[in-house]
Specification:
Elements: H1 2-32, H2 39-58, H3 67-89, H4 99-121, E1 126-127, H5 130-135, E2 137-140, E3 143-146, H6 147-169, H7 171-181, H8 183-188, H9 193-215, E4 220-221, H10 225-240, H11 245-265, H12 270-284
Antiparallel strand pairs: 1-4, 2-3
Helix pairs in contact: 1-6, 1-9, 1-10, 1-11, 2-3, 2-4, 2-9, 2-10, 3-9, 6-7, 10-11, 10-12, 11-12
Amino acid sequence: MFTTVAIILDGFGFAAWLFLSSVGLTLIYGVMRILNISHGGFYALGAYSAAWAIGLYTQTGNTIALTYLIIPVAAIVVGILTGLLVERGLLRFMYGHEEVLMVLVTYAVFLILEDVTKLIWGTESYVAYQPAFWLGTVDVAGIPYTIYKFLIIGIAVAVGAGLYWGLNHTRVGKLLLVVIHDREVSAALGINVTLFFTVTFVIGTTLGALGGALTAPEISVVPGIGAEVIVMAFAVIVIGGMGSIGGAMIGAVIVGFARAMSVHLYPPVEMFSIYLVMAVVLAVRPYGLFALAEGRKI
């Protein structure tokens, strides 16, 4: 019973983190057909900026409660500024090229962002435990569980619901769906496809930064965290179906529970279990669980 409860709690907690870290990646791919390898760099920037801002604020001796406002503000500022810089300064010149070339370009951006974080914040670790520590813990079937983890789960559900509502029940969302299905026809109908690309990329980078900022109070923020998250996020969106928001949520749950079960039952296969699940899913559904196979253009 104890192990079962622990698996459920850790599974949902890890799934929430994975969804927040990967949903921006799948959104960008769904609209722009860009596998944004630099997504891990935006995650790292969000984590570093939040940890740094929390550290500065807590030194003033003011109430910890305001750090819960600092976290999203730091993510939004970093996501918007860097997202606009990368999309307007580089990616817009690459539209229309092969997807493989876009992968190489975004990988180069990722390497640049990795060095940028080191130039700004150095190579020492940042610890911003105060927001998670201040909320305390709650006892669940005899297991002390941080309330902050439940907060992240709630935010992940809210983000998923907000994206679903925005895409399916707003005029802008419906126009975006038109762009997703056929960008050439969309442009012919007078839809500003370039503007939709810019906004989508900025939203995706902001979501990536938000994932990092929310994770900062639970980890030691160190160089290299972006590389880890891009690998995990890629596994999530491949399992769920690249470009599918709902698929990212289901993929995050699958990967989250696979990881939680392996950690509690047989820790040596923690990473292996994730890629085993991905291999099994792709063997049955080569395009992921919720993605439709695209017609091949000749």
